[in-house]
């Protein structure tokens, strides 16, 4: 009986690796396709705007291939709560990407961090309030004042200098 259970777990692990690898390869290929227009603008010796995203996409594809050829070790499938946390994290990232432009960096990032902290079950209420706000504000000020890189502005950013 135990051998059948181990074999099922190994098959499920292998199938999960293949599905994850396929998704990662698709993401890498998408990045290459999306940066095609940027690559045309690049000069000969300078990697340009497409260089770094393409490097990351290449590494992502290489790691996906390594994942696809990896043998399942018979690990147990993730628990239901673990799977729900992963799904929640994916939904949270998508919501953050969609909220960034209309809400601005500060509001969207603070909400994202609050959601992420709730997902990982941070129990201290002071941390749930202070960390997202302080982190978002510090990163915004560093990028906008030190580096001169504009981040998406929303109603809250309009109150800042």
Automatic annotation (TrEMBL):
A Pfam cross-reference name: TctB
Keywords tagged on the record: Membrane, Transmembrane, Transmembrane helix
Matches recorded under InterPro entries: DUF1468
Residue stretches making up the DUF1468 domain: 19-152
Membrane spanning stretches: 49-70, 82-99, 105-122, 129-151
Protein name in the entry: Tripartite tricarboxylate transporter TctB family protein
Lineage, highest ranks first: Bacteria, Bacillati, Actinomycetota, Actinomycetes, Micrococcales
């Amino acid at each position: 009986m135990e051998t059948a259970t181990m074999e099922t777990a190994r098959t499920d692990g292998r199938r999960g690796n293949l599905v994850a690898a396929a998704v990662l390869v698709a993401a890498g290929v998408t990045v290459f396709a999306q940066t095609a227009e940027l690559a045309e603008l690049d000069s000969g010796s300078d990697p340009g705007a497409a260089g770094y995203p393409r490097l990351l996409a290449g590494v992502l594809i290489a790691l996906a291939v390594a994942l696809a050829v990896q043998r399942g070790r018979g690990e147990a499938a993730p628990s239901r709560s673990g799977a729900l946390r992963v799904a929640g994290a994916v939904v949270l990232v998508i919501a953050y990407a969609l909220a960034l432009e209309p809400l601005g960096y500060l509001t969207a990032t603070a909400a994202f961090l609050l959601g992420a902290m709730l997902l990982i079950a941070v129990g201290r209420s002071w941390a749930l309030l202070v960390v997202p706000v302080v982190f978002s504000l510090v990163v915004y000020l560093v990028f906008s004042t030190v580096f001169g890189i504009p981040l998406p502005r929303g109603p809250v950013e309009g109150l800042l200098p």
